[in-house]
Write a structure and sequence with these properties.
The protein has 424 residues and is mostly helical. 82% of the residues lie in helices and 0% in strands. It has helices spanning 2-24, 28-59, 62-78, 86-95, 101-112, 114-130, 133-152, 155-161, 165-190, 193-213, 227-258, 260-280, 284-293, 298-302, 305-330, 338-344, 354-362, 366-417.
Length: 424
């Protein structure tokens, strides 16, 4: 009886969404169905980040939390050798039916990621001479397992390309729940940077590694490979590598010149705005397969600009209202810095670049994307050096805001500069 009512309600909602699709200019059944599952998956990802931030902020000293953040920053930088652009290339290839591209890309990522191991080994040697032996040991262990870590999170690209957002939501939610429990337990019982990092990485490798290498096989129905997508993935990886360095540059500068305590503050004040941006980005995997499988031009995409803009403004206002209460209740040690977090959230306006970014990927304009990444990330490095030097932690926030605004402007410049197949 309950199942019958559920099916009736589902059918009514589907018919209602289909009816109003033409009026709002969106494929509502597709976005409602996919958005539901992506929201579920992203909810657990956001909840994990929120819980861990509360645990780190209240159970760890700023110095210890800053040291953990520093190690994870270096691990992120090592990811530049794991072909970070290969993911979007796989999504596009799989969406067009070239499902064998997934494992072909996985092999390339694993091969190149050994260079990341060498980078981590280099940091281990540096920390040895610097006298921080605990951090040295962490980097030594990470260098030996990094290639397995690099490929462990690859399965979402396959499922996004196949539009299996339901499966992706279930797998990612399972991982987020298990990893959160284990990391919280580690922090509670040890408060050790070494064990927190080791547990974080090993859980990622064991659970997501299984999903990426073995579970993913059941979704690959053919061995067809799009070599052009592989080359495209490599080409935009060069620019995304520079992007990863630039995006981690401020954390490195803060850690080495301002200290681990300031790095902890920086991570807390930027965490919630970044989580909101990640939550909004949950709809990006739906957008790329949609425009990749259809001949959508610039005018078709720009029809939705006003809708995205209103969503962005709404989310900025909501955070401004809620941030003081959130910091007072959950981050009391960092309450004096809530104003920095509110200022930083202005940069959420850069979410609008999702439109030109996905369009240029659909058109495989790797040269445009490379130029876009180079310009904006070069500016981020310059902004970081100048503003942190003169204004310290406040300068780090300002440099991030200026970078995101520059990213928005540059992405739309290339979006309008490029002429598509329709000459528009």
């Amino acid at each position: 009886m309950v199942k019958k009512h559920y099916n009736n309600l589902k059918d009514r909602l589907y018919n209602l969404a289909k009816k109003y699709s033409s009026k709002v200019g969106l494929d509502l059944p597709y976005f409602i169905k996919g958005g539901f599952w992506l929201s579920i998956g992203q909810f657990f990802g956001t909840l994990k980040g929120f819980i861990l931030s509360i645990v780190f902020a209240n159970l760890l000293s700023k110095e210890v939390f800053g040291e953990y953040s520093f190690v994870m920053t270096i691990l992120s930088i090592a990811g530049i050798f794991a072909l970070p652009g290969m993911g979007v290339a796989v999504v596009q290839a799989v969406a067009k039916g070239y499902e064998g591209t997934y494992f072909r890309a996985l092999k390339e990522v694993f091969k190149w990621s050994w260079l990341g191991s060498l980078l981590l080994l280099g940091f281990s040697i540096y920390e040895y001479f610097y006298g921080r032996f605990d951090v040295m040991l962490i980097f030594l262990i990470l260098s030996s397992i990094f290639p397995f870590y690099a490929i462990s999170g690859f399965y979402p690209n396959l499922l996004n390309g196949k539009k299996r957002f339901d499966i992706l939501a279930k797998l990612s939610s399972f991982f987020n729940i298990i990893s959160t429990i284990l990391i919280v337990a580690t922090v509670y019982f040890t408060e050790s940077v070494f064990w927190i990092v080791v547990i974080t990485v090993l859980v990622q490798i064991l659970i997501n590694g299984y999903f990426s290498l073995f579970y993913a096989k059941k979704f690959v129905k053919n061995n067809e490979i799009d070599e052009r997508s592989i080359e495209f993935g490599k080409s935009i990886s060069y620019s995304q590598a520079f992007s990863n360095i630039a995006n981690s540059f401020d954390s490195l500068i803060i850690a080495y010149f301002l200290g681990f305590s300031d790095l902890a503050i920086f991570k807390i004040v930027t965490l919630l705005p970044n989580q909101i941006k990640m939550l909004a980005n949950a709809f990006s995997p739906m957008l790329l397969p949609k425009i990749a499988s259809k001949d959508m031009g610039k005018k078709d995409l720009m029809k939705h600009f006003k809708k995205f803009f209103l969503i962005v403004i709404f989310l900025i206002l909501i955070y401004w209202i809620g941030a003081p209460f959130i910091f007072k209740w959950f981050y009391p040690q960092y309450y004096d810095y809530v104003w920095l977090s509110m200022i930083f959230h202005l940069s959420f306006i850069s979410f609008l670049s999702i439109i030109p970014y996905n369009y240029l990927i659909k058109e495989k304009k790797g040269d445009y994307l490379n130029k876009m990444y180079f310009i904006t990330n070069f500016l981020l490095i310059i902004f970081t050096l100048v503003f942190i030097y003169y204004y310290g932690l406040f300068g780090a926030i300002i440099s991030r805001i200026l970078y995101r605004f520059a990213n928005l402007l540059v992405s739309f410049f290339f979006f309008y500069y490029y002429k598509d197949s329709h000459g528009k």
